[in-house]
Amino acid sequence: MSRKASFLLIILCFVAAVLSGCAQNTEREAEGSDAAVAITHIRQLVAADNKTARTIMWEAKVKQPYTLEYRLKGSKDIKAVQAADSSFTDKDSVIQYTARLDSLAPGSTYEYRINTAKNKGQWHKLHMEAGAGFTALIFPDSQSADYSGWQQLARTAYQRHPNSAFYVNMGDLVDNGQDASQWRAWFNSVSVFSDALPLAPVIGNHEAYSLEWKECLPASYTHLFNVPQNGLAKYPNQFYSFDYGPVHFVVLDTNFPEMKNFQPALLADELPWLEKDLAASRAKWKVVLMHRDIFRYGFGPESGREQTQTHLLDFSYQLLPVFEKYKVDAVLTAHLHTYRRRVPLQNFAPAPQGAGITYILTGVAGDVRYPKLWGDFALDAATAPKPETSNYMTLKADEQALEFKAFLPDGRRFDEVKLTK
């Protein structure tokens, strides 16, 4: 080959390489990216009926119109909805958007992306409930001084249970509900799965604290999580219910002490709503999720405090009869940062064999711990290993059984209970 021919071949190879690179870049641009549309903290939220509906929310750097496109996975038939501007100001201003999807196909896997007028976001997974059995992840209080531990627990739990249908955070998601930096830390912690795994949030008392550590309306929480709109309009996004598979879930607001100066009728209004909601459900199983536990535990002998007796809280005397009337199967709580599963209870006492409701105090997922604070309790059927560390749970449900399991951060199971009927 002549020198001229060799030089020409080199030039042709260079041009081919450049064109190939351009093609790859064009392909990547066509795929889109969330950075290109300037959005973060993408999250799915459960809907009242998760076979056909879902809510998607995200935060943005600037205000501009957003469109959410979605399609069945592998399909070229793309549909679109216009996102609603759901921005708000608490102590800080947050630019965010909400898109509600409905009329989706049960059991189908979709993809969605978020677009601006000029750019397209990347595709995210959206899987619809099929109406069959499922497994859900349950996280207790994640409030922290340093959210790195919560991040590791949440992400590791998801890695161990990648086929989970949705996840629950049992309240006190953050330590201070008006601290925007803590919300950013919380969202960053779950960012590897929050775009694809729906969240069922539970409001906690720490969502109702101002930066001055005074009680306040939980404005950030109620704006950040547009849950199913089947609660009462007077209390937007504070309590709601949803169905998943054979289970009807009721999510309650138990911030009665914090809201006494802002929403003094919270319990009085929530009770008839609860009765109506439970009465209307024909689900095989009924599960209640609420932040405050039904008991106030007494201090233990190693607490350094005057020992006190464990006792039922005042609101428990109003809630528990409703749970029993409508045959609730299990009640999950949080707040005390300790894991306790009680013997089944009925009429405020241990139930006869084969009867009663299972109450589980779900533990703690953040780094705020109360070592040696709470005493033992005769009704506790199971506790976490001492000294208590963080933990998470799973709920497995089908027509035959409800099964709860509790895990340490390293994946070791330390408690389980299976309910059948």
Jot down its keywords:
single chain, 421 residues, alpha+beta, Immunoglobulin-like, Purple Acid Phosphatase, chain A, domain 2, 2 domains, seven-stranded mixed sheet, six-stranded mixed sheet, 27 strands, 20% helix, disordered N terminus
Instruction: Report the radius of gyration as a whole number of Å.
Output: 24 Å
Cα-to-Cα separation, first versus last residue: 84 Å
What's the CATH superfamily of the largest domain, by name?
A: Metallo-dependent phosphatases
Shape: globular
Question: What structural category do the secondary elements indicate?
Answer: alpha+beta
CATH architectural arrangement of the largest domain: 4-Layer Sandwich
Helix content: 10-25%
The residue ranges in which pLDDT falls below 50 over 5 or more consecutive positions are: 3-29
Write structural notes for this entry.
The protein folds into two domains: 39-127, Immunoglobulin-like (Sandwich); 134-420, Metallo-dependent phosphatases (Purple Acid Phosphatase, chain A, domain 2), CATH 3.60.21.10. It is 20% helix and 29% strand. It has six helices and 27 strands. It has helices at 3-31, 148-160, 180-189, 219-224, 266-280, 316-325, and strands at residues 39-45, 54-60, 67-72, 79-82, 84-85, 88-89, 93-94, 96-101, 109-115, 124-127, 134-139, 167-169, 199-201, 240-244, 247-251, 285-289, 295-296, 311-312, 330-333, 339-342, 345-346, 349-350, 358-362, 380-383, 392-397, 401-407, 413-420. Strands 14-15-16-19-23-20-24 form a seven-stranded mixed sheet, covered by helices on one side.
